[in-house]
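hiii, so i know i said id send this last week but things got crazy w the move. better late than never?? heres the sequnce for the chain we talked about at the cafe, plus the structure i predicted for it. fair warning i was half asleep when i ran it
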Amino acid sequence: MTPMTLESMDAAWRAVQDHYPAHLILSVAYSCHFIEAGMKKSYLEEKGIDESMISTIGPVVDSFDEVQKLAQIIGSMSITKLVVVAEEWHAKRALMILRMWLPPEFEIEMKTFSTSRFEKTFEPHPVKILGWIKSIRAGYALPWIIWNKLNEWITPLMIRRKMKSAC
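okay and structure toks below
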């Protein structure tokens, strides 16, 4: 697991220690999602979290896909409050997208963390050049921050486009 993934798992574990969630929903991505899910679950189980408290969604390919899959699992579990763990530069955009898909009365609390180290990872994407850009951006703080700020600004446009295509 990358440093960012480990730090997100620690933040989720701390939320459980603070008596927040009754259930953890972990997001896993791309073709390695089964391996990633197993690693994340094992990590949390070693910290004392019961396996029955953990679900996974995936494979996800982007934030919109992730939230759509999350909305499905939330609906099946009758959840009314969500504690979201997100890296500090991604949190605002994640919240915007969550607000797009979840009912307005749904309670969302953000738990953010700062990653100590960035690490390049391969991020496949249907548009090949975006996959390479995302892979490079994951490895360094400055591209990560610029990517997230840029996407924060264009997310409202992307949301409108997604809403039109959903109709």
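btw The longest helix spans residues 141-166. thought thatd interest u
miss u guys!!
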